[in-house]
């Protein structure tokens, strides 16, 4: 659920002291702010980046994946020609995050009219869907679901895929499987004309409006989001800090973390509507129909707009009645 939704119904209390959110990545605060007030404190960030096999890219003359789609496609086709039996991108049809990020990179604004109507049938939407579909049409990614690729970490470690758009949890997965560090690295995800804004939302902490011990609750939030705590959790479970000051620590001075830190400076929070998770699933279904040749891109986008408008019907009625801002 978007962090602002509990605030709109009075379920969580506003942050009482601006110092509690001082030093956080600004884009994370935008995602949990309502009416100019902060209602949650970012605790961790999780933007996607491209995990890539350095050895496979080096074999076709690249140190890292290019940052724009045309150049990335050129590199991917070279990889495919060199290794025709393998794939380039570890992207599966029921993993919506990479697809949503492609839309974001293309500049798609998913909703319009105060977030009450869909906005996918645009030139930006067509560009994003065309790029996504081309990855599968060219045999660069499998037309498969996650049930058909049951161990993506092993597939990446074995070199079956060269590039894997994923979040910070993959850092821990690769470490636990003892995948040699010299074989892989990370880079920001490519965009149509270079890397762009992506969502980095992960987890935020808030306090119930009905708590009988607000001072103690906010003291706990302040403790958990302190630099010391953020670094402790990063060591323990791999969370990436939302507190900018934590990134000055030598603990985070690792080349594989640089892409995450860079990406968080270009945030793209998702729409602040409770229906957003449903909408993302509809985007995924529409893109899969294009990939499998069931619909053309204009047909899929038009159908997507219709279904999303239906999902937003209640919200639209409340906004039009003046009961929801």
Total beta strands: 10
Shape: flat
The total tally of domains equals 2
Helicity range = 40-55%
Q: Could you give the order of the helices and strands?
A: HHEEEEHHHEEHHEHEEHHEHHHH
Number of helices: 14
| Largest sheet, spatial ordering of strands | 9-3-10
Can you put this structure into words, describing what you see?
The structure is a single chain. This protein is mainly α and 325 residues long. It has 2 domains: 5-47 and 199-263, Periplasmic binding protein-like II (D-Maltodextrin-Binding Protein, domain 2), CATH 3.40.190.10; 49-197 and 272-320, Periplasmic binding protein-like II (D-Maltodextrin-Binding Protein, domain 2), CATH 3.40.190. It is built from 14 helices and 10 strands. The protein has helices at 5-8, 26-31, 54-58, 69-82, 96-105, 123-137, 152-157, 169-176, 214-224, 227-237, 255-263, 276-291, 297-311, 313-320; strands at residues 33-34, 37-38, 41-45, 49-53, 111-112, 117-118, 163-166, 184-187, 201-205, 240-241. A 3-stranded antiparallel sheet has the order 9-3-10. Helix 5 (96-105) packs across helix 12 (276-291) and helix 12 runs antiparallel to helix 13. The protein is flat and about 65 Å long.
Name the descriptors.
325 residues, mainly alpha, D-Maltodextrin-Binding Protein, domain 2, 3-stranded antiparallel beta sheet, 14 helices, 10 strands
In brief:
This protein is mainly alpha-helical and 325 residues long. 42% of the residues lie in helices and 10% in strands. The protein has helices at 5-8, 26-31, 54-58, 69-82, 96-105, 123-137, 152-157, 169-176, 214-224, 227-237, 255-263, 276-291, 297-311, 313-320; strands at residues 33-34, 37-38, 41-45, 49-53, 111-112, 117-118, 163-166, 184-187, 201-205, 240-241.
